[in-house]
């Protein structure tokens, strides 16, 4: 890594009781990787001068979400292992709840776009499905929301009502 | 609205009244089914890289990830009025879909495991060949010595025949 050895022993805090607890507390939460990915996508974060922050908040590392006291300190930080490790994590695709649900075999419902007539009135409201009783009593597949097997493409069925 | 949520880490079901909900200061909501998952989140681990999660298994091709049976269960943010017939139909459909999905998952597993036995055999054989000294030290020594003798003999024969050719 080119930074030489650190000033402390490796894993020096591993055996300290309560060390992990301190960093796991909500009080001490740092920015999550997905938040930082959003920050970078926005084009970074700018802080106004704040005397309470280290370096007045003027030397902020977006990738790790940390403030530094000077430009030198920030530059030194960008050569460290934690920083480079974080870069790798950020390069990966963002993990979302949608992916967790896909893991459970649940997809997101895709509704057809809302169509309007010349006056701007909505012709079809895909989010509103009249109850099965009002549409057709014979085939309740029209309200496809809860009858999955009966309608292979629920969205099209919803559009036709 | 009461619904069965899914854990952010392991994709397991989170029934009403169970698990932990964490609301981050940017108002994003995370659900966890148990403290194991919650802790993994607090340690900022990527669920895609934790081996026991569904997202790991699906992203690595350990489990069936793309299939038409996954198209039925969806997060639908719209109300449907209760209808007895519809309910009965849905319950029947769920059973059918589940049956098909289980069969496909079994098939997927069999296909994935098809060549494993052969592969393991080859690996075991290679390991024995590589570490023959550990299995049968005397035998390997003997073979080595015979090899040396044979090689020396072969070399000698070759040299002799070469000399004959020159003459």
From TrEMBL, chain A:
Residues 130-161 have a biased composition (Low complexity). GO terms for molecular function: ribonucleoprotein complex binding; zinc ion binding. It is found in: Cytoplasm; Nucleus. The keyword Cell cycle does not apply. GO terms for biological process: ribosome biogenesis. Keywords: Cytoplasm, Metal-binding, Nucleus, Ribosome biogenesis, Zinc, Zinc-finger. Residues 125-161 are annotated as: Disordered. GO terms for cellular component: cytoplasm; nucleus. The keyword Nucleus applies. This is Zinc finger protein 593-like. It comes from Hondaea fermentalgiana.
UniProtKB/TrEMBL annotation, chain B:
Gene3D superfamilies: Ribosomal protein L24e. One of its GO terms (biological process) is ribosomal large subunit biogenesis. GO terms for molecular function: structural constituent of ribosome. It comes from the Eukaryota. InterPro entries: L24e/L24_sf, Ribosomal_eL24, Ribosomal_eL24-rel_N, TRASH_dom. Belongs to the eukaryotic ribosomal protein eL24 family. Signal peptide: none annotated. It comes from Hondaea fermentalgiana. Pfam families: Ribosomal_L24e (PF01246). One of its GO terms (cellular component) is nucleolus. Residues 7-45 form the TRASH domain. Keywords: Ribonucleoprotein, Ribosomal protein, Ribosome biogenesis. This is 60S ribosomal protein L24, putative. PANTHER family: 60S RIBOSOMAL PROTEIN L24 (PTHR10792), RIBOSOME BIOGENESIS PROTEIN RLP24-RELATED (PTHR10792:SF8). The lineage of its organism: Eukaryota, Sar, Stramenopiles, Bigyra, Labyrinthulomycetes.
């Amino acid at each position: 890594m080119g930074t030489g050895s650190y000033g402390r022993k490796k894993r020096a805090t591993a055996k300290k009781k309560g060390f992990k607890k301190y960093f796991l507390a909500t009080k001490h939460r740092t920015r999550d990787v997905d938040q930082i990915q959003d920050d970078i996508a926005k084009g970074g974060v700018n802080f106004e001068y704040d005397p309470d922050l280290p370096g007045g908040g003027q030397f902020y590392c977006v990738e790790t979400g940390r403030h530094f006291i000077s430009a030198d300190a920030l530059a030194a930080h960008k050569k460290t292992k934690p920083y480079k490790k974080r870069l790798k994590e950020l390069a990966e695709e963002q993990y979302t709840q949608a992916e967790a649900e896909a893991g459970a075999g649940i997809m997101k419902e895709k509704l057809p776009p809302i169509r309007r007539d010349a006056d701007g009135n909505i012709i079809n409201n895909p989010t509103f499905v009249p109850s099965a009783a009002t549409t057709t009593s014979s085939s309740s597949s029209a309200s496809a929301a809860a009858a999955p097997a009966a309608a292979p493409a629920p969205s099209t069925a919803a559009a036709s009502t | 609205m009461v619904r069965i949520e899914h854990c952010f880490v392991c994709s397991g079901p989170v029934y009403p009244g169970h698990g932990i909900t964490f609301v981050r200061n940017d108002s994003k909501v995370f659900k966890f089914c148990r403290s194991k998952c919650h802790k993994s989140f607090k340690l900022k681990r990527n669920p895609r890289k934790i081996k026991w999660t569904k997202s790991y298994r699906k992203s690595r091709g350990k489990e069936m990830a793309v299939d038409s049976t996954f198209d039925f269960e969806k997060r639908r943010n719209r109300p449907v009025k209760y209808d007895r017939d519809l309910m009965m139909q849905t319950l029947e459909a769920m059973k059918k879909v589940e049956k098909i999905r289980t069969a496909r998952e079994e098939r997927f597993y069999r296909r994935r495991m098809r060549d494993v036995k052969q592969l393991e055999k080859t690996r075991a054989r290679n390991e024995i060949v590589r570490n023959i000294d550990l299995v049968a030290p005397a035998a390997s020594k003997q073979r080595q010595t015979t090899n040396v003798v044979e090689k020396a003999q072969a070399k000698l024969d070759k040299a002799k025949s070469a000399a004959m050719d020159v003459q």
